Amino acid sequence: MKKSKNFFPGNLKFLRERRKLTQQALGEALSLTRSKVNALESGQTKAPSIEDLLKCSEYFKMSVDTILRVDLPKLGELKLRDLEAGNDVYLSGSRVRVLATTVNAENEDNIEMVPLKAKAGYLAGYGDPGYLGSLPVFHLPNLPGNRKYRMFQTEGDSMLPVPEGAYVIGSYLSDWRFGKETACIIVTVTEGISFKLVTFLPEERAFQLRSLNSVYSSYKVGADEVREIWKFEYYMTDELPSEILTLQQLSRGIAEINQKLDRIK
Asked: In the chain, what is the greatest distance between 2 CA atoms, to the nearest angstrom?
């Protein structure tokens, strides 16, 4: 397995200089000595303590994951300002990565279709333009052009009356902190692709997943298990929906039964 690169030394220096702080001033803010800050920035401290990492995380309002794993100097100014405003990517879901996509000859985003036979490979290939380029693509003229869409084929009956095998179109969510239960296609490392009613639980850094079919129990997944979330927009199916009796129809039927019983009496 390829070892993840540690960007902490360069990131610490970069963040300090963005705030126009000396090593002495940053050390005082973090309750560290100037020499300790210098050792952290220069990489002399090969394994920073958890306590030091948490101090930096709290001070700069960025998660430890971001400070360790993201090469901050290479980010654009808008993304950096978003981070500095407290919108940490490992909490919001954008993970400082460009969403892999495919485009047509006019440089417009395709809607890639992920059928059931491609479902197993999606978790490994969702960020690979080569994999996405192998998927069927299409366009729908009535969709707003300011979003990215993808289509997934459903499996199982957990979201009835949306039938198994239906094709669900979702719009990509870069920010996962939505305030109410939302129908989504959620991609996790444990279950792959699931179509559920999703609620964000900020205190637990987790999501509650619920099925429309009440036979299935709701459950939680940690935010660190989630790779993508696509907000439900439309679905397509070749199945004709089953007839659903309205209250008026039920009342009429009950009245007819009562009339027949009266005649029998």
From this structure: 100
